[in-house]
Amino acid sequence: MIKNKELVLITGGAGFIGSHLADALVKDGYRVRVLDNLKPPTHNGKLPDWFNKKTQFIKGDVRNKKDWVKALKGVDFVFHLAAYMDYHLDFGTYFDANAKSTALLYEIILENKLPIKKVVVASSQSLYGEGKYKCSRHGIFYAGPRPENQLMQHMWEVKCPVDGREAALLAEKETDETHPQIPYGISKLAAEKTCLALGKIYNIPSVALRFSIVQGSRQSFRHFYSGALRDFSVRALTGRTIVMQEDANQIRDFVNVHDVISAHLTVLKNKKADFEVFNVGIGKKTKVRDLAKIVCRLAKVPFKPIISGMFRINAPRHSLMDISKLKKLGWRPIHSLEDSVKEYLDWVRNYPEAISYWDKTYKKMEREKILKT
Ligand SMILES: NC(=O)c1ccc[n+]([C@@H]2O[C@H](COP(=O)([O-])OP(=O)(O)OC[C@H]3O[C@@H](n4cnc5c(N)ncnc54)[C@H](O)[C@@H]3O)[C@@H](O)[C@H]2O)c1
Questions:
Q1: What are the residues facing 286 on neighbouring strands?
Q2: What are 142-195's pLDDT values in tens digits?
Q3: Contact (CB, 8 A) for 361 and 244
Q4: Contacts of 344 (CB under 8 A, 6+ apart)
């Protein structure tokens, strides 16, 4: 293989997606540098044992300009994945870690006239909020959050705002309106707009990738977000009953981490991707109930869940991505949900910490009233 000398910076490269991206880039012959603060909630101050030793590691924070300046020296490409996620109540941190950090990146590129060839920023399906629905009588509308009193009555589906009839989910497109409902999503929207606008004004090729729910090995033990696979797996592997939220018929778009990595590689060198935003999902509907069934089948335990009627305020009822835009650049998700669950189960069995943290995160969700009945 011809050695590629280009240097790639991955912020958040010690985390779930970033560490898989580092592996793939090292394998492709790139020089890789990682900037990560190794702080909770994802880490405990130490590099995880899966971290690729062939990369250069800088311990630093994307909220600090001097850490960015150090990390950006000699870099050709930047993947900005470091982010503050989840449902925490320190709202300001989302904007510092996700939006301000993105502005700092462009500020430094300009100030130092850095010859960065491309910036790719991690965005999120969370931007779409509840998403787009169709009423058979009144047509397409963007749904707001389902009212709490509706959820208290266990009426789960999104309703037409005109006649109150149940509406049908439509897949989210990049051209859709964005209506993020949580600070994380709002800060990601700001990050995405900063990246695309500053990229265009200053002619720095920039791309935003909106991931759906990414699944695979190395998923953080400590986040609530994207937690269904961890929750079901820990319960299945420890003989606990699976407890499902709402009526377990929520639709989600679960994409495999290796497909997300191949999306990064697709946009890295393709000029057609510049100044564009792309959905990165699987583009198929999966009911959360079916995810739990797959977990139980692969963990070899019976599927006997409790359908709890608990719900998360501001969690969308359904979400599904239209992935045709990125497919036009030749990308395809090739892994099934079974592949993701198998990879996750094989990995989590060797991480007793994942199981001990499960209790803590679950109790925190109840304490902070993120879960309601
Ligand atoms: N996992 C998903 O399902 C999903 C879905 C949509 C979007 N995303 C986005 O993908 C990116 C990666 O997510 P992930 O799932 O790998 O999360 P992760 O928590 O596993 O990784 C994030 C990494 O960023 C680092 N980090 C956080 N704040 C930092 C800071 N201020 N300075 C330096 N490093 C910091 C963390 O230590 C961690 O290693 C994030 O931008 C996230 O918003 C993830």
A1: 252
A2: 999 999 999 999 999 999 999 999 999 999 999 999 999 999 999 999 999 999
A3: no
A4: 215, 216, 217, 219, 229, 230, 233
Q: Are 350 and 317 in a shared domain?
A: yes
Residue numbers of the domain that contains 136:
132-171
* pLDDT, position 314: 84
Boundary residue ending a domain (154, 171, 188): 171
Residue 345 Cβ < 6 Å to ligand 1: no
Whether 186 and 158 map to the same domain: the answer is no
Q: What is the secondary structure of 213-250 as a DSSP string?
A: EEESTT--SS-STT-HHHHHHHHHHTTPPPEESTTS--
Q: What is the mean pLDDT of residues 324-353?
A: 95
Q: Which of 11, 23, 42 to mutate to test the pocket of ligand 1 (most atoms within 8 A of CB)?
A: 42
Instruction: Give the whole-angstrom CA distance, residue 361 versus residue 304.
Output: 23
Q: Of 158, 162, 163, whose CA–CA distance to 143 is shortest? A: 158
User: Region 106-126: what's the mean pLDDT?
Assistant: 98
28 within a domain of the structure (yes/no): yes
**What is the C-alpha separation between 7 and 21, in angstroms, rounded?**
13
For residue range 256-280, list pLDDT tens digits in order. 999 999 999 999 999 999 999 999 9
Vertex 6, ends 3 and 7: CA angle to 5°? 120
CB 276 within 8 A of CB 195: no
41 ligand 1 Cβ < 6 A: no
Domain count, the chain: 2
Are 353 and 335 part of one and the same domain? yes
Contact 282, 331 (CB under 8 A): no
Considering the domain architecture, whether residues 180 and 302 belong to the same structural domain is answered as yes
Q: Quote the mean pLDDT of the chain.
A: 94
Q: Are residues 188 and 164 in the same domain?
A: no
Ligand 1 midpoint to CA 98 (Å): 9
Count, residues in the chain: 373
Q: In which region does residue 239 sit, left (phi positive, over 0), alpha (psi from -120 to 50) or beta (all else)?
A: left
Q: Is 257 in the pocket of ligand 1 (CB under 6 A)?
A: no
**Going by CA atoms, what residue is nearest to atom 37 of ligand 1?**
38
Which has the higher per-residue pLDDT, 65 or 89? Answer: 65
